[in-house]
Amino acid sequence: MPHRHPHPAHVSAPATLRTARGAVALVCAGLLALLSGCGKDTDGPDARLLRLSQRNEPATLDPQLATLPDEYFVLRALSEGLLVPNPAGGQPLPGVAETWSVTDGGRRYTFKLRATARWSNGEPVTAQDFIATFRRALTPTLGAPEARSFFVIRHAADFYRGKLSDFSSVGLSAPDPRTLVIDLEQPTPHLPALAASGPWLPIHPRTLERFGGLTARDALWARPGHFVGNGPFILREWRANQHLLVTPNPHYHAAARVRVAGIRFQIYDHGDTEERAFRAGLVDVTMAVPFTKLDNYEPPIRQRQLLHETRYFALNTTRPPLDDARVRRALALALDRTSLVENVLRGGHQVALSFIPPGLGGYQGEARLQPDAATARALLAEAGFPGGKDFPRLELTTWVNTPVLEAVQQMWRRELGIETAIVQREGKVHMAALRSADFDVAFTPAIPGYDDVAALFEEFIDDAGNYGRWQNSAFDALVREAGRTFDRDRRTTLYHQAEAILLEDAALVPLYFNAQNFLIAPRVHGWQTDALWNRFYLDVSLE
Question: Is the preceding omega at residue 300 within 30 degrees of 0, hence cis?
Answer without folding.
Answer: yes
